[in-house]
Amino acid sequence: MSNTPTRMPLTGIKVLDLSRILAGPLAGQALADLGAEVIKVERPGNGDEARRWGPPFLKDQDGNDTRESPMYLSANRNKQSITIDIASAQGKELVRRLAARSDVVLENFKVGDLARYGLDHVSLRELNPSLIYCSITGFGQTGPKAHLPGYDTVFQAMSGMMSVTGLPDGVPGGGPMKTGPSLADFIAGQYAASGVLAALYERDGRGGTGIGKHIDIALLDCTIAAQTHSVMTYLAAGVIPPRRGTEGNGGLPSQAFECADGGVIVICGSELQYRAFCEVLRQPQLADDPRFVTNSHRLAHRRELAEVFNALTRQWPARELLAALEAAGIPSGPINRYPEVFADPQVVHRGVAQRVPHPTAGEVTLCANPIRFTGTEPPPATAPPTIGQHTDGILRDVLSLDETQIASLREQRVI
Length: 415
What we know:
The protein is α/β, with parallel strands linked by helices. It is about 35% helix and about 15% strand. It folds into 2 domains: about 5-225 and about 350-410, Crotonobetainyl-coa:carnitine coa-transferase, domain 1 (Rossmann fold, 3-Layer(aba) Sandwich), CATH 3.40.50.10540; about 255-335, formyl-coa transferase, domain 3 (2-Layer Sandwich), CATH 3.30.1540.10. It has helices at about 25-35, 70-75, 90-100, 120-125, 150-160, 185-205, 220-225, 230-235, 270-280, 295-300, 300-315, 320-325, 340-345, 345-350, 390-395, 405-410; strands spanning about 5, 15, 35-40, 80-85, 105, 130-135, 215-220, 255-260, 260-265, 330-335, 355-360, 360-365, 375. Helix 2 (about 70-75) links the parallel strand 3 (about 35-40) and strand 4.
């Protein structure tokens, strides 16, 4: 089967993205990557708040800062941008007209905010009964904290994620730690996209109802759910998982090990891999050391295990140790910074970094959608839009406004 451009799975699906910052836009981007037509509605003037979350900012062709921050660029590829003041009567009506022609609405306003403008799910479903309306908030649409705002770090803390991330107490640097990336936002965005796909199938799939759903996504719920086995260790066994730094959750030794010139990650997920690791380090007798002879013994002596094996790996250059581990079939890898990540031959081969045209920067490098359909070459990605880049085209082509009407809306600062 040849890799030729073909129809994407969500081709023909129209999404109205009223969200901003990160979780909601990431959901919209996930749908856009799958072929949906996503129209992003922004406030005239400043637009999505994430645009301003710099420095750094994307540079234009003359080396000057643009209005595009990495935070904004990370969550808005393959979309169109229209600026509309939803607080104005005319602006509200424009959004309602767009919603009437949409399959999906995404929003992450505070609970109840959009009802003031007639843009809540009840109002828009009266206008368009087949509309799928996805609300993404910190705490969800119900409950004693539903009215409260929140950001990623709040939910990493409240969900327990920080309690199981970082070095153990009692060691230098020990204590709860957030993840580097905004994982709570990312997780919620992916759950939202998954919910939208399920609602689309219920509406349009085999035996479809033809009726839309209201999807209620809470960052707190999603961040708890994403902790999988850590959460179940507590729920099923009553055991609170400790922080273990880089140590894995299964067989040992599985952690970062020090080398003469850096460090590597080694995962011994089976007895065979453990014995092979001992052979690579030229210490086969360690496989039968009474302290380490089974995984249960190694768990009981984890500190000693780490000390013994770190003393051995420090004698190796990282590259030589990784080559020996790879030859022995032991899961392992370098601890890369981003320059090494994007220079890795596997990452280059997979096309994870994509260079695409940008209206002010000339070009911008984006992180590609990781979903691949065998035999299908997705259309080239489009750069996250500049603020209001598609306003006139959307009003003209989607809502059939003429140039005089568009000029009047701009003069009144509706757009």
